[in-house]
Each structure stands twice: as structure tokens, then as C-alpha cells.
User: Fold these one by one.
Assistant:
Number 1:
Amino acid sequence: MDIFRTKSVEQSIRDTEDPEHQLRKRLTATDLTVFGIGVIVGTGIFVLTGQVAKEVAGPAVALSFVVAGIVCGLAALCYAEFASTIPVAGSAYTFAFATLGEFPAWVIGWDLTLELALAAAVVAVGWSGYFASMLASIGIHLPASLAGENPVVNVPAILIVLLLTVILVIGIKVSSRVNLILVITKITVVLLVIVAGLFFVKGANYTPFIPEAVSTPRVEGLKAPLIQVLFGVTPVAFGVMGIFSAAAIVFFAFIGFDIVATAAEETIHPQRDVPRGILGSLAICTALYVAVSLVVVGMQRYDRLSTSAPLSDAFISVGYGWLATIISVGAIAGLTTVVLVLLLGQTRVLFAMCRDGLLPRPLAKVHPRYGTPARLTIIIGVVTMALAGFVSFGELAELVNIGTLFAFVVVSIGVVILRRTRPDLPRAFRAPLVPVLPALSVLACLYLMLNLPVQTWLRFLVWMAIGVVIYFLYGYRHSRTVRARVKSGG
């Protein structure tokens, strides 16, 4: 079985011209940058900052954001080169198909499904928490069974996914306009947090900046980082190891710049604008993350931070509850854009897989009026609503991270392969220092993966095994690449 047969770049581009599966080109560099900021600035600032500072890194969580940002920066340069060379929907899936072959492409597509669908559900749950907090601040209290810490059914999370699914079906330009309005709102609030929070920062809260390493229940047994288990190190939180363990967790906050690449096919000038969107959004967001994390741990001692709404609760702790309400509004806007863009990215990855026949091809049919893959969008929306409504936040975030890091590893390797196999291809953007930079990206991503808990690795391996079974039962048999080979007698 020729499961490593690649799909040429030229064929990938020709597929985008099929009338039934042709996405409309309506996006600019500004749209892409806003999409990137829309999905990156969200959970990391509004939720993970407090959780990771309190449980894993202390005030040094700012360094964790720097580490995660550097790792993302290395991968982003590789993504930018690929996206400018192969401006086709699918992101890492499409890149892998052009360099490593069909089966590796399926694996990475299945992996991206894990990353994007679960991430959208996780963020929708975080959105629900802030929404309930905002309503409570004006005297409206939702029942705990519908929107509490452990609800029976998380109704607000389900409703926000439903609303955004409708917006995505209507069209990419409508989605980008809604995203722009919400991004402006949340960036304004983030800047407010930074400026207003500076007046309440206490130097004593930064001491110790790197708390002494301690063994905690959070990192015992299967919850211990894999690297600590492999090398026989007593699992600990805080300390220097805590910074890297936290970086592996807050990495979740950076997922999204790669989603810019999934919209390449809908971009007017993809070779020029996609790299700008990827690198621009990542640079802006890293600076915001570091600034906000330093302010919030300076306002309130790290071991007293809230894990559900750290920014708004930090202002409540200094007696400025009205600011907490504004922050909740910003968080709601912020997390809304994250869910929106994650759902967008997920539909475009599966769209590319369906168009190649690895999943049912009729699902990739574009709506004649809206120009979007409406069928796929609705299916993904329903699945995400189910996950957001019935699965808890903590169990999913780390699983999303390992999926993202694995995708980054594949893309970094793929850049080197495509440079050697197709040096003739026009590259509007070229990653510097190839192959050194991609090698550093691979090593950095693998290191962060090793800092994730053992149970995350086990769940990831189970998910990938399920994907392999589906490929051989369906994907390989219906692949357009294999069928074309059979017809040609190859």
C-alpha cells in the first residue's frame, strides 16, 4: 500500500479551483492578523494566567509565557514559509501531504481535529464562567447545575457555540467583521488591565519570583510531567522545572497563529499576507501576555489568585469591583473570538481532508449562496456543543497542547523536506537558517511535550490509534490520490 504517496503542490492548488469545493477569496493581511489576535488573546490571559501561577510557576509564569512564545516563534517561521508556498486550506495537514505523504497527512489532520475541536470546547467552557460571573455582578445568578464550577449541562457554553456556528455558516467576511469588533473590545480591556493594574502592583508579591520547588498532589502519579518520570526525578511544582512545566501548559494560550494558515485559500494575496498575519499576531500577543501576567501576580499574591477568573478577581481584591465587571465583558468578547476562529480552523482542516476523499467528500461541498463548507461547519458545531456542554475544562487543555506541539514538529520537519525535494517552488517568504531553525523548533516542541503529564500522553496515543484505524477502514479506500493512481495504472 502506497500510503506515503505525496500530493503535488500543483495538484493541491488545482483542487482549489473545483467549483463545488471552491472557497471565496475575501481576506486581507489585516483580516488575518485580527484572526490571529482573536484566537490567541483569550484563554491564556483571562483564565490560564491565574491557574498556572497559583499551581505551577508562581510569579515566574511570565517567564513561562516567554518560553512558550519562543517555541511558537520558531514554528511560526516554518508555518509562514509553507503558507506562502502552498496557499491551500488545511494548514499542517496540507503541508504534510505535500512532503511526507498521505498517511502522515491523515495523522496530522486527525491530530489537528484533536487540537481545534477540543480547544473550542475548552474555551467555550471558560467563556461560560466569565459570562456567569458578569451576570452575577449585576444581580443575576445562574443555577450551579447550568453554569457553575461543575454543571450538569453547561448551557451558556452550548449557546455560544451555536451562535458562532451560525455566523460561520453565513460567510467568512461576516465572521471576520464580527471578529474585528470583538478583538478591538478585548484589546482595549487588556490594555486597561495593564495600565490600571500598575497602580496596585506591590513589590512584595513578586517575592519569591521563582518559588521553591515542592511536591504537590497536582504532579503526582499519572499527573507528573513525563520528563520527570523518565529521568526518575521527584515530580515537583514551582522552581525552575515549574517554569517549563508551566510553559507546556500556557502553550495552550498561543495556539491559533497556525489557524491563520488554514485561511490561506480564502486570502486575496496569500503569499504576501499569510506570513504577515502569522508573525504579526504572534508578536503582538506575546508582548500582551507577558505584560498582563506580570501585572496580575504583582496585584495579588500568586497563591491567592483565582483559577477561574483571575483578572477580574484580582481587581475585586483591591476594591475595584466595577473594573472587574469591565474585565468580564472584555473576557467574554475575547473568548468569543477564540471559539469563533478555532471553529473556523477546524472546518477548514476537515474541508481539505474531505476534498481529498480521506473523509466523505460530499461534506466538503461549498454552500452555493454563502461560499462556506456549511455541512462541515454544522457538524463540527454540534460536536463542539456536546463537548462544551458535558466535559470539564481541566481534562482537555493539556490534551490540546500535545496535539498542537505534534503538529508543529511535523511542519518544522516538512519545511526542510520541501526545500530539498522542490527547491524550484516560488517562496514569497523563506524561513531563515534552514535547517538549523526547524531543528531547533522540533527540539523545543519535543521538550515541551515531555513536560506534559503522563496521562496526557496516554490519552493522546489512544486518540491517534483510533485515527489510524479509521484511516485504514475508510480513508485509504476512498482516497482520491489512490484512486487517481489506480486509474492511471500506477
Number 2:
Amino acid sequence: MSDSSTAIPPSPDRITASAERPRVVVIGGGPGGYEAALTAARLGAQVSVVADAGLGGAAVLTDVVPSKTLIATADVLDLVAGSGALGIRDADTAGSPATGALTVDLGAVNARVRRLARAQSLDIRAALEEAGVRILAGTGRLAAPGQVEVTDAQGQQERLEADAVLLAVGARPRILESAPPDGERILTWTQLYELEELPSHLIVVGSGVTGAEFASAYRALGSEVTLVSSRDQVLPGTDRDAAGVLEDAFRRRGVTVRSRSRAAGARREGDGVVVTLEGGEEIRGSHVLMALGAIPSTAGLGLEECGVRLRPGGHIETDRVSRTSVRGVYAAGDCTGVYPLASVAAIQGRTAMHHALGEAVHPLISAQVASAVFTSPEIAVIGVSEQDVAEARVAGEVRTYPLSTNPRAKMQGIREGFVKLIVRPGSLTVLGGVVVAPRASELIHPITVAVTHRLTADQLASSSTVYPSLSGSLAEASRQVAMSLFD
């Protein structure tokens, strides 16, 4: 995130109060865009949203909602596959664990994924229409700081005057020139939901969040999976202990992890694909998913011509209240490069409108942003990391409590995972945390509350938890930290 002293000119840019309703134009219909539009409408502005890919943007139509719907299906199969340890047997294989009783109709799974994505998009449209927001189908570009030029599918143009403009144009998959996607065998994550048959062998190139999530999901669905990672561990930048648990889970479930291997290209060959590594080795599979990150969709929007500063990678510079370098122009979401999270995009969009319309503003604080990786097991993190402490960027103490001793985990056959807390020495104020567990994305919330409101480990431990529950491990980890005062 840019420093406000370099991103923003010194003069204020809030809309001057007048008898007329302020005009807000939002370019982009994703979480940053539609949340900003709803916020501005509630604050009394005249709001127009320009969207060329459907309301909800990539998050709803091709990314978050579809991927997590697919992963939810995979979770069911993963649960069934491990049910033998709980005494559940397949009637056709008396005495054997129930590992092969279910099969996947990927065509039906993907039809449901697309149906839910469309339904969510329609819900967003209905909310915007109910709020009185004008919706324009087409592409928008910044013609001037207070003017947006809209071009529809027929090439017809309209120019909108605006007191405030929000850029929420998102990002698109990064493409490797030597592996051009064809939507059939060489795929980006936006193209997976058109598949009718389960890949017999899916090669996933890239071990970041997207690559790890799809490797986990497709292995649970029944595909052979090879994960090609240029780093020495999956999920580079994530807590190393959490990444280690996930790698162990991958290997136990049969995912082949090729660490320190960089893909040079991919090509179709017959009914399959061949991925070539930089050393010349070739990996053959039925399909390949290129999960190499994303690039901001900021080209051709007239930004630089209007003075909106971009970083070298094309991301829009913003400060903590979503202002760009041009007065009255804001930005939110993946096009800013702050965090590639739908939740953060929504916060940025709402913050921008509160600032533009003269309301109280709560700037985005990165240390209070929780995130999750929807693998099996899930990984969720918040705040200061153990690496921050190890590298002396922050003074902190680290405590880890395994899930293996949790009674609910034992009942459910959960053998992997942990809770990790990072606290300030002396006061034991909670600075950060990591949860590795089924539904870690839900379990991280109490730690997020503690980080946001500067609670101590003792305060977190004193809150009641249900017995038995996985959340009991959060309280137990907090008690262990609090007891360290008496060591």
C-alpha cells in the first residue's frame, strides 16, 4: 500500500456540500464497486455503475464464489474419504474404509457452480436497483478527472459527469506466452468451470493460494494432481508451519509436489498436455491449470493521461482511504495491489465513499485483515507473523497449541492442525495468529477481534467456549500464553 505522502496531493478532495446530490460513478461491478455504490446511494448520492463483465465481477462470476463452491463439493468427498477411521464402512466393500463409494459428475458440479454464481450476480443487481443505482453495461474509461466515458457493446458512447469516481476494475489471470490457454486443456482459473469431465491428471503450475486451493480440491474430487512450485514450499509468504502441514497433507493424499521447479511452457499433445520445466524435463497430464497470479486490468482506461499514478506492475497507487493521486478519483480492489481479497476490496470501496461524501472514515489497517486459504485443511492468518518476530521487525512471543489434543478434533478424526498466537512481550496483547484446521476461515474470527481491539491473551482466554469445540483450542492457546506470566 502506498504511503499517503507520496500518493496524494496535500489538498483535501472531499465533495463540497451543495443543494444538489453529489454524482458518483463507479467503474467495475466487483465487491469494491458494488459495495461502494450501495454505500454512496445510502449516503444520498446519485450513483452510476459501469460493468462490462456482469455484476459481482470476477469475485462472483469466475473466482471466489465459483472456486469456493467447487471446494465445498470437494470437502464433502474429502470427509467421506476419511470416514473409515470413524467406523463408517461401504456396504459393498464390507470391512473396508468408504473411499470409493462416491463418484463425481463434474459437469453437474460445474453447472451448479455457474448457477450459484449467476444467482449471486442477480442478487447484487437487485440490491443496486433497489438502492436506486443506475447500472450501465459496457466499458468505462476516465476521460478527465471528473468525467467517465462509457462504451456499450454496440459501440455507442455516453459521457458521465462525476464529483467522485471509483476505479474498481479488478485483475485478470497472468498468461505465460509459451502456454497460451485454450479453455479445453490449457486453462486459467476462470475457465475451469466449463469442464464436463474430471481431469484424469491435472497439472497445477503455481503454488500460491489459487494453485494450492485447486490442487487440494481436484485431488479430493478424484483427479491425479501434480503441483509445480518454483519455491521450496507451497504458499510462499504464508506461515511456514502452516505450509508444512499442508504439504504433508498433500503428500498423504497423493498430490505430487514438484518443489523448486519452474514451468517454461505448456502445449497440447493428443488428448493431453505436456508441461516443460526450465531444465528441459517434461510432465504429461490430461489438463494443466496455469495459476501464475494476476495482473491489474488498468490498461486503456486513460489513467496515466489523467495523472493517476500507477506502480511499475500496473497497480493504481492509493492511500489508506483509497484516494489516488488525482483529486476526486478513488480506487478499490485487486487493481490497487493492496490485498487480493474480496473482503478488502469491499472495505476499500466503502471507505472511499465515506471519505468522498464527507463521512467519518476508518482507514484500512493491514494488520487487522484476516485471510484464508481454502485447502484441506484450511489455513487462516491475521496480523503479525512468526517471521516478523524472527526477523526482529516486531517484538513478540509465539505460542503454538496442536489440535491433536482437542476432544472435538479427536471425535471428528482430525489429526492435523494447530492454533498459533503471537503476543506482545509483557502486556501479552494479541498481535497475530494462525489457525490450521477444518473451517479455519471461521475459527480465525475471535483472534481477528482480539487483534483489532487490542485484547490480551488473558481476555481472549476468559471468554467462554462450548465444550467440546475446536474453538476451545483458541481459548486453551490463550490460557497457555496468559500462564506464561507466572513462568
Number 3:
Amino acid sequence: MNILDLQVILVLLIGIISGIAIGSLPGLTATMGVALVLPITFGMNPITGILLLIGVYFGSVYGGSLTAILINTPGTPASAATAMDGYEMSKKGLAHKALTISTLSSTIGGILSVIVLILVAPQLANFALKFSAPESFALAVFGISIISSIAGKSMTKGLMAGVLGLLVATIGIDPMGGFPRFTFGSINLASGVNLIPVMIGLFAASEAFKSMEDIFAKQNLAIKVEKVRLKWSEFKTLIVTIIRSAGIGTFIGMIPGAGGDITSFIAYNEAKRFSKNKEEFGKGAMKGVAAPEAANNSVTGGAMIPLLTLGIPGDAVTAVLLGALMVQGLQPGPLLFTNNGPIVYTLFIGMLLANLFILIIGLLGIKYFIKILSVPKAILSPLILVLCVVGSYALNNNYFDVMVMFLAGVIGYFMVKLEFPVSPVILGLILGPIMESNFRRSLLMSQGNLAVFYTRPITLVLLIFALVTLLGPIISKLIKISKGKEIINENN
């Protein structure tokens, strides 16, 4: 079937629009969206069916940024990093510019990752196989070290929030021993605390609570929406950040089990590290929007690399796509390119078109997306809470998740009041299980020999990066303090 057939184009567009809608709703992740659409593709032509799923996948990853930027409600965990600067831009009346940056970064990141998939997929897939438990542990430690960059004004408060996330991540069945930890006899806690309700509570529900408080206090709640467009001179300053973030996303995306959640935070950290104006991050920095969006959308192409070349899914969504390919009679692996070459390269073209359609739909839809900011907060805040309840309940059809969401919302509300950053909590929840399980697997592999963490080159490099990232801000502050003391002594 020709990729340019009207039927194929329409199916791809329907998938993208559906994906954007799914991704923008709290609690409905890309994995859930693809899984829901999967049964529809069983009777379709292989190309049409797979492209429908790819459209939903790509669209939902992009869609998560819309609500993250506009109402501080990340539609997907990968958009949590985007909310830190995207929502600050919206509060300054720069929602139009923030959404433009998000759309352009998402498209460029997605296209670059597909180009890498087409050109060097087999070689990169072989390199990804070198990532075993020690490397995955070191990558998780590197991710945790990013707390130093997203801690905000107080490093101590950031570390406390990160530790809280790590502690919550230990609740549930022990990943290696199989015995319950901190469940207090509750069946609902046996599988651990779900990330999605906690994220919805910390970001969306807490923001709704704060808005409702402002309503009762009769404070000015209006957010100005200025049609300030992105200038070419501003976009040029983002190009290097977007390309670097796309490379990070593609690389981490091809590592089985890594996913876009950790990627967006790592890209955000690297954007801040290379920025000359580090203090603007967290206050509405354009690079703080461009980096995570380029990274989490480039994961889509990166995760397809091990899937198509080795038959190993790079993340949860590609695990569903693996099943879809097999249902259509396609066996992912080295022989896929030999036996089904025309279909594979047609899918590649479809993936490039999917990213271009996201660009078109995103840019055309910005003027409609930002209308949500014109809704009075007295109406919008209760609606956000309703979406929080629906999104939390839809995960497992369990009211316990709704209770977790409300509890996280209350905690998030007081954290904002006390100026504690909430992003480190999410980072700890995401990376805690990855770090713990791979640390213990590494010790089993080496029979308890800690040398496994510094005799493997990739592991050692990642751990060094983690140490530099964590200690960098502390060292820079000490240098500033010492310089300040020198100036005072000279004046005296």
C-alpha cells in the first residue's frame, strides 16, 4: 500500500489527533492510548494499522506538553520537566511562545530520531545491548543527581523532596525478594504507589487547590495572554539545545526500560548546564521548554531502534507495538529488513510524516489551545479537579488511586507554600525502582563485588557524570562565597 494514499494519510491524522487528545488528559498515558487503539488495527492492512498506532504514540507524547504548559498539569510523566518553565511562561502571558517552542522542538526532535533510526539503527542497537544492570543503575544515579539542577532556591529542600520520592518508591513488593515492604497489610499498596496519581496530585490538584484559595481570597487570578510570537533570533538560540536534547533522547530511548520520563529531566539538566544564564531556569526559560520536549519526542524514534532491529522493546509503548507487529505477521528482528524491507521503509516515511503533521496541527491549534486560559479560574479549577479524579480512577478503576491523588495534592499544596520543589519527588519515584533493582542485580551478577561499578567503562563514566552534576552547584556556591569574602576583606 502506498504511503501517500488518502486512506493512509487520514488514518495517520486520526491517530495523531487522538493521541494529542489522550496525551493532554491527566492519567491517560501514551501506553494506555496505544493499547486502547490496538484492537481496532487487527482487521487493517499492516501499514495502515501500524501507522495508526504510531500516530497515537507520537501524538500523545506531544500532547502531554499542552496541559503542562497551560495549566501546570503534565498529561504524561515525560512532560513533568516541561511544566517547570512552560507554566512559568504562561503565567507571564507567553503561552503562545511556549507552545510554539514546544511544537517546534517536539517536531525537530522526532524527525532527528527517525533519521538516526533509518541511518544507523543496527549499530546503535548493538551498542544498546551493552547496557546491563550496572549501566542501568549508573544511568538512574545520573538521573537522580539532576535534583541539584531542579532543586530551585534551596538545595537542601530539593534533596529532601528527592528523598521523599525515593522513600515512597520503596513501598510495595520487594523487586528481588518478593516480600511486602511498608504496605501495612494493605492490598492496594502491594503493587506500590502508582506514579501517575502522585504526579497528577503534586502538579494539577495542588495547583487547583491554590487557585481555589486565591478565589476565596478574591485575589487577581487573570492570566494575560499576549500574542507574543517566537522570533527567528530567539529560535536560533535554541537550535543547539534542541539538537543536543534530541541526541540525548534518541540514545536513552534505545536503552530498554529507560523511557522518556528520565530523558526529559536529563535533557533539562544538560540545557541548564550549558546555559550562560542558569538562574533563568525554573522562571520561564525558553530552553527549559525546548530541551525536555525535544528529548521526550526523540525517544519515540530511539525506542523503535531495538524494537525493529532486535525485537526488543525500548519502552512500554513499543512493547505494545511489538505485539501489534506480530499480529500483523511481522517478526521484529534482524530479518525484518530483509524479509519485509518495503513495509519497514514505508513505516519510516510514515514516522517522518507523523512528525510533520504534529508540526502543522500544533502550530495551527495554538490559538485554540490557549483559549483555555480565558476560562475563569472559578470554573477551571473545579474542572481540573474533576479531570484529576477521572484520570486517577481510569488507571486501574480503583478509588485508592483517587485517594493517593488527593493526598499528593494536599502535600503538593503545602510544598508550594513552603517553597519545596515538587519535581524531585517525581524524579525519585521514577528512578527509585530502576536504581534499586539494577543495583541489586549488579551485586548478584558480581557475587557482591562492588568493583562491577568502576571496572565497566560506561558505568564508571555515568557515575562520574552523576558526581559532577550533584556536586557542581555546591562547589560553584562555595566559590562564590569565598570570592565574596575576599572582596569584603579587600574593602576592609
Number 4:
Amino acid sequence: MSFDYDLFVIGGGSGGVRAARVAAQRGVKVALAEEDRYGGTCVIRGCVPKKLMVFASEYAGMVEDAQAYGWDLSPGSFDWDRFKTKLHAELDRLEGIYRNILKNNEIETFDQRAKLADAHTVELADGTRKTAKHILIATGGWPVTPEFPGSELAITSNEIFHLEKLPETMLIVGGGYIACEFAGIMNGLGVKTTQYYRGAQILRGFDDEARGLISEEMCQAGVDLHLGTNVLEMRKEGDKIWVKATNGDENLFDQVMFATGRAPNADGLGLEELGIERDRAGAIVVDQYSQTGVPSVYAVGDVTNRVNLTPVAIREGMAFVETVFAGNPTSPDHELIPTAIFTQPEMGTVGLSEEAAAEQEEIEVYATSFKPMQQAFAGWAQRVLMKLIVSKATRKVLGCHIVAPGAGEMIQLAGIAVKMGATKEDFDRTVAVHPTMSEELVTMKTPVRTA
């Protein structure tokens, strides 16, 4: 049977574009459809614009630090319009790079929605049908907002990059990394920021000690954090949003953002008609090689809800190409993935939390919390955390957790050692780089506790 293409990719985000490019470079005839902007969540409405906003939000503190170090500087005001214009110009540039990657690799693109018509056929929004030997779904995820009276007044992380003006007051609802990152960003940009989270502590699933420190530091920085609190109802009052909370509070905010979860972007793709299974969260069910129950259809990235990180989607896309087009069955490695949370303070983590490690075996915990030199000299009270979780039996470092400026940069390198199976003694044998914050990772000699 002949097909229009060897591979048709639905979704132009990081995972889909990488799979398309790598396949095309192997001589595979590839097409790709994207209904929105190329680059996906990470480039257009996620990691990249968020990190640029993190940078912008930190400059006010840098001015104060500079003054403490003797520089005669005057605090300025943040120009949202100027920043937003440059931000969107940068996103346009990056989208152009993604489009050129596809063009330069002779991948035919369709700027419209696509869905499955059968196991080898894709139907485009204009009714055109294209056939392919293999179909890869890489449509990512999408923020979801719970339904309650007035919920339509809330924005999500998708819209925050497009605000016409910076609000004076803002409520952010949620306790995951997206909510906490934007609470720090908006607070740093001078917005009076309130955060509600229904749970007992933010950043559920991460190391308890680390997330406790982040929570403390966020509050000290000015975020008005309310734990055990959720929104009951909202309504418009003039140009403000009235919010009633479960703790009885009633407040007015200029803007409300919900960051209470994301769902796999898999609706309306024709999956059910083909018998492709989805789990209770709506994710496409795949095997270890990213293959669905229909042999010609594969899925990678957030739409599978395995590990929802851009570099993971890219790895999954590359493993798919290696499996299908190189004849080398390759399962993406989801173990010991280092990651950063760009809260303020920043967190880097790899491996098991203290709590998870203690459930599986006896451990030793090495940890230290201190005022870093740069901030201490400037007179600030912020503290950082360096923490290693060590197996008593094997001496392997099971987890590394860093809460500090630049934690993301540090954890990338520490992650290599943990991935290689380094022991505590391997860390001890490494000479410290002095004076640095991270030298504490190789100088902690005595466990602070065992479990």
C-alpha cells in the first residue's frame, strides 16, 4: 500500500517538531499539522516567556543589592508595555526558527487542525485527507479551570503573557510550580500578589523541607499566601473581580489567574472512533515505545501525561524515530530526571524526596541551610538549602535538592552524578569550589537525621 507520507505529525511543539526533523534527516517523507503557533507550550506560552518574566521580575531586587554593595542607583519603575513588546518579538523570532527547521528539512506543513480519520489517514480542518504509514500525536496539554460561579472571569497561564496592562492587585489560585512561579513573578514586578492553595503546603510531591523553605521565602518576599484556601465564587464589580474564599475572606482583585492543573490536549482527535485508549485523566495510553493500541499511531509528550517536561517530550520524540525508522526499539528513559522550578527562591531537584526515599529503604539525610554570602552581605535574611538523600545500604545518592539562586543551573550538573549512580563518598572525594554555595554538596560530613 502506498501513502502520501511515511510520517504525519499532529502538533508543532517541541516533541513533534524534533521527531519530524530527526525522521526527515533519515530520509523519511514527513508532514506536520499545527492549528496554533509553532513551538508549542514551551516556546509560545510556557517555559520561555515565563523564564523571561522571571528575569524581568528579579531586577528590582538586583538594584537594592547593588545599592547595598555601594552602587549609587535609584530604583526605577517597570514598563510592562516595553517588556511585552520585546517579549512577543522574541517569541515571533523563536516561532520563525521552528518553521525554518521544518522548511529546511523539506517537511510539508499544514497550518490547521488535524484529526485521525482511520489508522493511516489524517483529516485536516479544510476537509483534505492525507495518508501516512505512521502517525505521531504530539498535541501537548492545556490549562483547565474548575467550574464555579464566576469562573469565566479567571485567566490561565496562557493569557498572562497578553495582559494589556500590569494589574495593581492579583490573585493566583493553585499550589503547583506554575502557580508558585507566577506568584513570584508578579510580586517581583510590583503587583500586590495573593495566592490561594487548597492544600496544606505548596509544591505537593516535592521534598517537604525544600518546599517548606520556598513557602517561607515567598511569604517573606511579599506574597500573601493562604494555605487551605480555595475560591467559592467570583463576580465582576466595576473593573474589579470580587472573590469569596472558603476561609470566609471577600476581596477585590484587578486580575485572577487559575493554575490548578493541566489536561492532555486529546479531545476531538478521533481517538475514540479508532478505539485508541485514554486514561482517566484523558491522556493517550501508550506502551514503553510510545505506541498506542493502534499499531500505526504513536503519541509523545504531555498528551501522554507521563513526565510533562519539554526535554522529556523531545527525548520521547527521538526514541520514537529510533524505534520506528531506525529499526532499533528504544524506550525513553524516565528515571532520575533533573528539573528546575523557577520560584523565587529557585529550586532544583533530581531523584527521590526524603519522604519517598524513606518509604522504600533506610536512608541518611545530609542537609544544610544558610545565608549565602552575596545576599548576607547585602543585609537580606534569605536562606538557601543544600540536601542529599543517601541510601544506607548502597551509599548511592538517591536524591539531591537545592533551593537557592541558580538552583536550576546547579541541578543540571548534580543530576549527571546522581544519574551515574554516584555515592556519598564520591561526593566527599570531590574537592570543593570555594567560595560557592554549591560547595556544601561536597562538604557535608555528618547526617542530620536517619530514617
